[in-house]
Amino acid sequence: MKKQKTLIYRCSSCGHEEPKWLGRCPECREWNTLTEAAAKNESRQVSKNGLPQTLPLSTVNPMEGSRIGSGIGELDRVLGGGIMKRSAVLVGGEPGIGKSTLLLHLAAATETKGRILYVSGEESAGQLKLRADRLGINSKSCLERIEIFCSGNLEEIETVLNNIKPVLVLVDSAQTLFSADAGSISGTVNQMKFCSYELINWVKEHDATLFLTAHVTKEGFIAGPKTLEHMVDTVIYFEQNDKTSGMSGTVDCRFLRAVKNRFGSIDEIGIFTMGEHGLSPVEDTGRLFLVRRDGELPAGVATAAVLEGTRTILVEIQALTIPAKGTISRVFSDRIDSGRVSRVSAALEKHLGLRLSDQDIYINAAGGIRITEVGVELALACALYSARTGLPLPADLVIAGELSLTGEIRPVQRLAARVKTAVNLGYSSFLGPATESQQDQTIPELKVSKNIKSAVKIIYNNVHPNEKNNN
Ligand code: TYD
Ligand code: MG
Known about the structure:
Elements: E1 7-11, E2 17-18, E3 34-38, E4 67-68, H1 73-79, E5 83-84, E6 88-93, H2 99-109, E7 116-120, H3 125-134, H4 140-145, E8 146-149, H5 154-164, E9 168-172, H6 189-205, E10 209-215, H7 223-228, E11 234-240, E12 245-246, E13 249-250, E14 253-261, E15 269-275, E16 278-281, E17 301-308, E18 311-323, E19 331-333, H8 338-352, E20 359-365, H9 377-389, E21 397-399, E22 402-403, E23 409-410, H10 415-424, E24 429-433, H11 438-441, E25 446-449, H12 452-463
Parallel strand pairs: 6-10, 6-11, 7-8, 7-9, 9-10, 17-21, 19-20, 21-24, 24-25
Antiparallel strand pairs: 1-2, 1-3, 4-5, 11-14, 12-13, 14-15, 15-16, 17-18, 18-20, 22-23
Helix pairs in contact: 8-9
Bound molecules: thymidine-5'-diphosphate and magnesium ion.
């Protein structure tokens, strides 16, 4: 029987397909962009008689277990335990952050025997080889299984894909893709979306995985990559800190963070440093966000134990308060949400009578890490208290806890693990929320406190017994 070619309506702006003509594309909301086209993926669920067919749920092959290791522990962590087959991953970040470097590391390290295609629209094959040499990619098996194709032309890329059938497709970058079929000027968002869509379809139909890079600017995410986010399964962004000095000298950390992940959590971050030989994963993050000091801490500094996904990290929280320059006091904090800082300072003012509303407040986290976990609040409160009163906190103290508006300290997840990390790094005391767990109650280093008032008492009674606070 002759196969009948199904017609569909494809949006010339975003590549979205509809069975019927519509005046406005439901996906990108553009008017008059749907035009008649042949359906590309008609082979998907069509039976022998040419009719579309459903699948009984019992016969569906679950994708669980079909992950492959990326060979880069920090990347696996962010992806949720490895690379999911038939998935598409968008890697966004500012130019120069290390997206191409990561892809090349990935090409060399992935635990697969299949072929790997690296499509580069940005660099020549020679440049890629130089970079590979720099990264130490020189084993015979690696050099043989990685195929390089330098082009952004979708039709050419599709021909190559069908020829070599790679299991891993690395495309650098989405912005260099173009196609004659996309029906608009090359280099536009529409071109990028159309081509990405075709590549995503290809990997899904061929049991492969796609990694696609996209540039974003410092000012925020430009329209382009943002519009790709809903098309892919996983979106990870590369961020950089501002090279503050940490315990191990000046650290130039790059954080890999998932903002969307259909196959895992988005809580995990991957931490890398960029060096002479490319990116190195930082697995031992213990001291990365602490500042090396001998003796007493300066006022305004507290050490917090926070969770980043499944790992605990210690971070030095720094607070500075100065009389407000304007009539309204302001909060300057880009590492911890400034709304959270305002809330914690309001709670301090209310429950300790510590005047902060006439102060400008500056908050920083050493090592430039962004902290979103609630467990940082008690340490933040202590840093603010210490900054405002001028009373330094004990240098051997680590703090974790959530602070409620009522001044109570609420339990946090995995308290014992936080204490353990602190103790392993040589800290001898830990202040945390009151705990019901029998096991936690037996931890010798853990001092617990129900509210912020008693927390301050516990901290300062031993250190400055005669000090009357609030200057
Ligand atoms: P790159 O991967 O080209 O960034 P992107 O693709 O995100 O634009 O990384 C570029 C930066 O990394 C560049 O400034 C040089 C630096 N770099 C190193 O420091 N060491 C290395 O081994 C490599 C390959 C790059
Ligand atoms: Mg690049």
